[in-house]
Batch of 4 targets.
Target 1
Amino acid sequence: MSATQTATQTDNATSQLQLNATPIRHALSDIVHEEDWSDFKFAPIRESTVSRAMSSRYFKDLDKHAVSDVIIIGAGSSGLSAAYVIAKNRPDLTITILEANVALGGGGNLGGQLFSAMIMRKPSHLFLNELEIPYEDEGDYVVVKHAALFTATIAAKVLSFPNVKLFNATAVEDLVTRPKGSNGEVTVAGVVTNWTLVTMAHGLQSCMDPNVIELSGYQDDGTRDMSQKHGVVLSTTGHDGPFGAFSAKRIVAIDKNKKLGGMKGLDMNRAEAGVVKNAGKYQGVDSMYFAGMEVAELHGCNRMGPTFGAMAVSGIKAAEEILKHFS
Ligand code: AHZ
């Protein structure tokens, strides 16, 4: 062995020793001394205290959000993008997100074919910059190393806004409508909800009635309060599936002038442009907005497959229109 090799080995051994000597630090270091856990204790609690801590908050939230300014159906990538923009700009609005699944993110927890990475075409990376989500820049597109990094980051930010409440495991089963004028037209006035597990079990039990979340802007007798801006529903339930395209399918039953467009075959360039172009206010029925893949089902755009730029951008566009409505 040469003298240089010996010196290198000695250096490596010394730095390893230094690493081993670095004291371990973690959140409990100040109360657990010298790695001795034998006296570790939790603060005491009663089981009923835990139950009350959860249920009292849940029902207080349910009470507060029974009338909401903005109801977002679906917490996928488009719904969360819209929620972030609306909540950030208007902390005074009561924003309710209803998600049928337990987990947030819809298709935004994975890339395509259950791969991890999320692809976003430029300029949607500007939204990633705002959210401080790291990515690899590949020129015309960027890559987030795991789609769940996008979902987890935006979900954390959305849920931190005090005016946002997420009710997950809660499915929207119908829209509330009220007459508008005398020619049979209606306006959307809220949503009908149920625990998702109940929604899935309607065929197994006798009638299990739902709950309702109403939009703001009505008086006690159900008539419009003209001194207030009317609340809105933004539907982002994704493409057709067990739960998807929910409001698109419902709205064509309500609006006699509209037929379901039906999502067309995959064409990334056309699809992303088409979804963004058609996202936002639905012209046929008042107070109804759409973003994300549900727009493709409603208006007959192509699907884009695993590129998520249009999910973020259609959410931002719908949010901008909703903010304009409330301004
Ligand atoms: O659980 C659904 C999902 O999380 C939820 N949802 C659907 N119906 C609901 C209902 N009540 C409450 N009735 C409901 N929640 O809506 C969420 C939709 O998320 P998503 O990720 O499916 O939709 P998105 O439009 O935000 O993103 C689509 C992502 C896709 S699919 C696709 C392709 O197939 O080509 N490409 C992309 C980018």
Target 2
Amino acid sequence: MPADFNGTWNLVRSENFEGYMLALGIDFATRKIAKMLKPQKVIKQEGDSFTISTTSTFRNYFVQFKIGEEFEEDNKGLDNRKCKSVVTWDNEKLVCVQTGEKKNRGWTHWVEGDELYLELRCEGEVSTQVFKRA
Ligand code: VLP
């Protein structure tokens, strides 16, 4: 039985988001705003099909995928770089590899108790975000 990510999740803490944004080349002004945000994620999971909407007072981002099926990701409103993404299961974790201009880019989601974790990776930087059920 894979983990159940369904639900509405609010950011409660984050580590090294600044480092991740720097690795992505996000400009100073945008980073100053982005690091103050408390985004909300709404995840819908039906078998191996997922939608993840991340919303905030500043920008929103939506992604839709099926496990194991590569898709074009535009990262619109984030760094706007296109990449080819694929999400797979690693036991109970969802692992996304984002192949493109940036090396070692991707993310991992997992649930621990009532918390949703998101590890964001780019080049040598790793940021961890923790969300709680709304
Ligand atoms: C861009 C980099 C902040 C910073 C400026 C905009 C959308 C997995 C995945 C969904 C993400 C999180 C994106 C963080 C990139 C910041 C606007 C923040 C709100 O989540 O849940 O594909 O990629």
Target 3
Amino acid sequence: ANKPIFVINYKAYETSYGHQALLIAKASEKAELEFSIKTIIAVPFTEIWRISKEVSIDVIAQHVDPIIPGQGTGFITAEMIAGSGGKGSILNHSEHKLKIFEIEKGIERLKLNNLYSIVCAETPRSSLAVANLGADIVAMEPPDLIGTGVSVSKSKPELVTKTVEKIRNSGFKKIPILVGAGIVDKEDARKAIKLGADGILVSSIIMKSKEPEKKIFELAEGLNSLNK
Ligand code: G3P
């Protein structure tokens, strides 16, 4: 079985840049080395270059614009992410929603630059849709639970199992399926894997923590407490 995937989405919290951002990156790297998991950090664009120089784990973007290099003031191309040391990008997060053609183009632009996509969706049905668009990794997050501390795995387990079912039954046997929203402790992480997910996406409980390393380790432990 593949290693469970642990994505930490930095979002735009005060801790998402500067000293604390690096500290969280180092702790994530340590967690990957200590537990049998794959750790990915999704940092602000401004941090990709610096953080990717400092850690061996995958550093990715939180979004990419589906444009080709050229006239595009203020846009971020897949080339910029690759050139800064990034390995991929989240696309269509519920806080940064895209139109279908933008998701499709974004995935394509990332692939052209040897970057992978983690495409978010809010329901089991749209999770299958983004798998069909060519996502490398699918991430299902019910938006109403994001940042609440009430986890998708505990409060809406049926959404996790349905997502896994829909995607696997449609012939996508290998595409990693992540779930996120409200994940705060070891049990939430463990339960996500138990329900058939391949990993989790987490933000606030780490980014707002006074002891992020402790939290990262706790969740990492929860993730590999089951052998699939
Ligand atoms: O991308 C992960 C995120 O949306 C989940 O946020 O704060 O509920 O862990 P949070």
Target 4
Amino acid sequence: MLTVRAPATSANLGSGFDVFGVALGTPADVVRVERAPETTITVTGTGSQYIPEDPDKNTVGAVVDALDAPARIRIDKGVRPSSGLGSSAASAAAAAVALNELYDRGFTRKELVPIAAEGEAIVSGEAHADNVAPSILGGFTVATADGVTQVDASIPLVACLPEAVISTRDARNVVPEYAHMNDVVDTVGNAATLTVGMARNDPDLVGRGMEDEIVTPERSKLIDGYDRVRDAALEAGATGVTVSGAGPGMLAACYRGDRQAIASAMVDAFDAVGVEARAYQTTVG
Ligand code: HSE
């Protein structure tokens, strides 16, 4: 039997919609695999009751097919589904790494990214690599149609997860079809700033680069208390705040010593609008 842990991730980071992603140190999914004539999947852990065990409907089933690697698979969810923290991607990433090794398929980690992304199509209708890439490769990743670029960044983060659910499909339905050139120019500038910030491990540049005038304003309307939580995090020292992935999770970049205060401020601000939340203090890793 083989066991692989794959971390939660945050995609988009505001300005890098469908392109940027970071691995979070915690939480994580753990996937155990052993060879079997037919694939079976069992799911335990947080939110497991919402995850289908039918291999045709589970993200991991697509990975099994892509690697032609039937197995008895046990998924222990640490990443809550529909959280914006890359839950389905964590399972798909762990399964891709585990099954590749179990069947000695010989794919590199980078080659496993599009394979794991096939699982994402089951959840969102499209095979995004912006969550599976950092879950497999770690650090900060830039996933485009031409491949993935990875940087071993180390930026302190707070990921705050409210007790609310937004499906990726619903969150994609509010993404505008067109954008004004001014907003595109600003967002490209912010994405470039964020990338430099990751390369330099500079929380100020990363935070500034998280600003996005195209997708985030629409998606933030789906999150009760978004503006209040964002303001509270910024006041507590966050260098930037945005929606994590498709939401409802929110992500703040910061300096290491400010994480505790930002985590408390975000949880309290959600609480003020009647929403229970928990915060993970972590680092891009
Ligand atoms: N980039 C994707 C989105 C991440 O925000 O919709 C979720 O798969």
